[in-house]
C-alpha cells in the first residue's frame, strides 16, 4: 500500500523509490504483488510516463485510509506520521489563513498542517492529494468524490475584478448592471462565476475561458475582460494591473470544509471541529 501511494503521489517509480529508500526493482516487484492480489492493473506504464488507472484511482483513498488506520494502531501516542494535507483550489481563507493555522499549531503542535493548492474544484480530495479541502459553492456542493462529507464554514462577499484602466476602476463599489456590457473572464475548472449570476435582462454576452487562477488573473490584468470572485481573492492575489471593487448586489460565496469518509488522516475530525469553531461566519468582517 505504501509503495502504491508513493508511486501515485510522485508520478513515477524512480522518485517513489527514492522517497521510500528502496531500489526501483524492489518497488516494481512490490507493486506487481499488490496488482496480482487485487487482480487489477493500478498503473499504465511506459518509457515516457506512468499514469494511474481507474482501478488505481478507486483504490487511492481506501489505501490512504488503511495506512492511516495502521499507523494509528501501531503508534501508542496516536501521533500522525505525516502532516494533515489541506487542499484548496484558490485563495484558501484569504488573510485569515495564516492566523488560523498558527492557532491550530498552538493547540496541536504535533500535527502540522500542509497547504496544497490543487487546480480542481474539490481541492485534491478525489485524487488523494488532500485530507481536507476548502471548497466554494452553494451548500451542499454537488459532484464530489464518493464518501465526501462537508460542512459550511462562512460566507464572503463578491468583488468585481477589473483591469487597472477600466472605466469603473475609480469607483468605490459596482453593481452587476455596471458590468453587463463587459467580457467576463471565467475559470472553467475551479471558478464559480457563470453568466447566470446576472439577471437575464442584463446578462453579459461574451466570456473568455481559463482553467486556473493564474491564467484568469493574467487575462484580466491584460485587459481581455473582467472577473468576479470572493473577498479572499482580493486579499490573496495582489496585482499592480488589477483593481478589486465590492460587487454590492451579487450574492455572497459560501465557503465549506470537505473531507472523505473513511478519513485519510487521524486528525481530520479534530481539524473539522477546530475550523467550525474558529472560522468567523463572515470572512470579510474585521
CATH topology title of the largest domain: D-Maltodextrin-Binding Protein, domain 2
Shape: globular
Judging by the overall fold, what is the CATH architecture of the largest domain?
Answer: 3-Layer(aba) Sandwich
| Secondary structure tally: strands | 12
Round the Cα radius of gyration to an integer and report it: 22 Å
Q: What is the H-and-E element order?
A: HHHEEHEHEEEEEEHEHEEH
Structural class by sheet pairing and helices = alpha/beta
Spatial strand sequence of the major β-sheet? 4-3-5-12-6
> How would you state the average pLDDT, rounded?
92
- Uncertain segments: none
Number of helices: 8
Q: Under the CATH scheme, which class of the largest domain?
A: Alpha Beta
Largest sheet: 5 strands, mixed
The proportion of strand residues reads 15-25%
What's the multimeric state? single chain
Q: Provide the domain count.
A: 3
The CATH homology group name of the largest domain: Periplasmic binding protein-like II
Amino acid at each position: 500500500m505504501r509503495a502504491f501511494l508513493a508511486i501515485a503521489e510522485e508520478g513515477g517509480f524512480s522518485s517513489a523509490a527514492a522517497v521510500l529508500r528502496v531500489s526501483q526493482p524492489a518497488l516494481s516487484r512490490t507493486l506487481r504483488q499488490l496488482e496480482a492480489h487485487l487482480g487489477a492493473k493500478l498503473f499504465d506504464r511506459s518509457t515516457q510516463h506512468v499514469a494511474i488507472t481507474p482501478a488505481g484511482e478507486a483504490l487511492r483513498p481506501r489505501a490512504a485510509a488503511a495506512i492511516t488506520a495502521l499507523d494509528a494502531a501501531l503508534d501508542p501516542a496516536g501521533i500522525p506520521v505525516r502532516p494533515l494535507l489541506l487542499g484548496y483550489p484558490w485563495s484558501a481563507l484569504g488573510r485569515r489563513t495564516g492566523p488560523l493555522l498558527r492557532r491550530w499549531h498552538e493547540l496541536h503542535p504535533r500535527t502540522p498542517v500542509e497547504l496544497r493548492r490543487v487546480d480542481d474544484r474539490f481541492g485534491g480530495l478525489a485524487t488523494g492529494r488532500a485530507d481536507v479541502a476548502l471548497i466554494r459553492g452553494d451548500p451542499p456542493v454537488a459532484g464530489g468524490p464518493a464518501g465526501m462529507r462537508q460542512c459550511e464554514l462562512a460566507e464572503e462577499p463578491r468583488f468585481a475584478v477589473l483591469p487597472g484602466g477600466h472605466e469603473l476602476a475609480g469607483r468605490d463599489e459596482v453593481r452587476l448592471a455596471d458590468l453587463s456590457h463587459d467580457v467576463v473572464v471565467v475559470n472553467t475548472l475551479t471558478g464559480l462565476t457563470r453568466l447566470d449570476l446576472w439577471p437575464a435582462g442584463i446578462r453579459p454576452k461574451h466570456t473568455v475561458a481559463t482553467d486556473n487562477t493564474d491564467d484568469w488573473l493574467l487575462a484580466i490584468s491584460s485587459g481581455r475582460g473582467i472577473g468576479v470572485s470572493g473577498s479572499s481573492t482580493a486579499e490573496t492575489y495582489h496585482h499592480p494591473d488589477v483593481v478589486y471593487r465590492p460587487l454590492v448586489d451579487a450574492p455572497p460565496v459560501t465557503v465549506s470544509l470537505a473531507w472523505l469518509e473513511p478519513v485519510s488522516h487521524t486528525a481530520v475530525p479534530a481539524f473539522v471541529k477546530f475550523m467550525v469553531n474558529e472560522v468567523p461566519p463572515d470572512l470579510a468582517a474585521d
